[in-house]
Amino acid sequence: MNTPKSTFGKEFTRRSFLRNTIAGTAAASAYALSPRSWAQVKGANETLNVGVIGFKGRGGSHISGMRALQQKEKGVRIAALCDVDKKVLDAGVQSFDKLNLGVAGYTDLRKMLENKNLDVICIATPNHWHALAAIWAIQAGKDVYVEKPVSHNVWEGRQIVNAARQHKKIVQTGTQSRSSQGIAEAAKWIQSGGLGKVKYARGLCYKPRGSIGLAQAEQPIPNDIDYDLWCGPAPLDPLRRKNLHYDWHWVWNYGNGDLGNQGIHQMDIARWILGEMELSPRVWSVGGRLGYKDDGQTPNTQIVFHDYAKAPLIFEVRGLPRAKGDKAMDNYMGGSVSVVVECEGGNLLVPNYSGAIAKDKDGKTVKEFKGVSDHFENFIDAVRSRKQTDLNADILEGHLSSALCHTGNISYRLGKQLAQGEIRDQIKADRGAAESVGRMIEHLKANEVDLDLDKLVMGPALKMNPKTERFIGNAAADKMLTRDYRKPFVVPDLTT
Prior knowledge:
Blueprint: H1 8-14, H2 35-38, E1 48-53, H3 59-71, E2 76-82, H4 86-98, E3 104-106, H5 109-113, E4 120-123, H6 127-139, E5 143-146, H7 154-167, E6 171-173, H8 181-191, E7 198-206, H9 227-231, H10 257-261, H11 263-274, E8 282-288, E9 301-306, E10 313-318, E11 337-343, E12 346-350, E13 355-360, E14 365-370, H12 375-385, H13 395-413, E15 416-418, H14 420-427, H15 433-446, E16 456-458, E17 462-465, E18 470-471, H16 475-479
């Protein structure tokens, strides 16, 4: 593994505060404190200064969320914005200027992190930046809210956990369903036997994903974007898709497909309800990018099977509609982007981020679970208390659920095209798998996909040691647990 050590955090402590600060937000006597202790000295009535990195998309919700807390007099304010897209950055800074709420603007997150006045960093960059940005922020003495998936690969996700523990920082994962009292109550109820023994938990991501088009040649980089910084830890490859923004989700160097985009939410809920706190000991995946030809690489149709001992976690991704030419998506037991936990005594449906519905085997509702609180507020409250256990979505939870997406994708990427019969034969011994694959095949037929021509990719069944988070007897799979990082954007090895 490419895991060199980093001295980035040490460099922060040597730099002068006077070169990098937003003036006038903290007492001068506190400036001499090291970054590691900075956030921890803030009193209950002192203002926490927030910096947001990446806000063209989801980062806008971070800004709105923190502004809402400011209006609720929770003692937070957005003090800095960072984006490699100058148009996005300038528009963001100007929007604050119009409200007479001045913020500092940064293109390079490293410069932002040198600002000792910042206590909290929110990260909503593309996936390939999540881990390094979070670790650098932690080493700079900041508490962190990092979007899902928290990592681009398994190894770097574990390094965020290591950094948070070593520096005693509060690190929240952006899986807001964890702040649902309704889902939390439902999870406890299922685990206590509310519907009998769990047969399997099924996560669903049936979400429309059309073609991103075919670029006929290398695309120009927009003048307002620092592409070197945009690529960061990933290779500095030419742009070979029409849209730089968002469509990176479907390119392996930067994204993790819809499994790691939308699906991470449902993966997390399913694992939560199963009560699993380790990676699965065995995983396989089958699927393909089908129904159109474009520049995307990740599957738009996929099944991942996590073979937990108590009950398997089965995940299904579908980006095509329920039939060719239709606008509606498929539905399974009442949900399209949801979780269905199938038990001996009935089923639990989690249709959103705020509640769940339990039904018996006859389909009669036996119990409903409701209630949700503010995920950002939970994070800020934990920053105040300095108690990691106060977090609804501690970084360890985020790492584990993100890693389940990554290991499923590793199996898929190591797979090969097989005929339908061969696939059915390989998965026949796994509970619930044949039924899932059968429905997927029917779904593709409804979309007029000829599986004799465009065969599904069947990945190998990979065995893993959940304690070490390494695969057993598969060097190719182990290699994909991390990546070769591009200097100087190297995720440090923080293994103790």
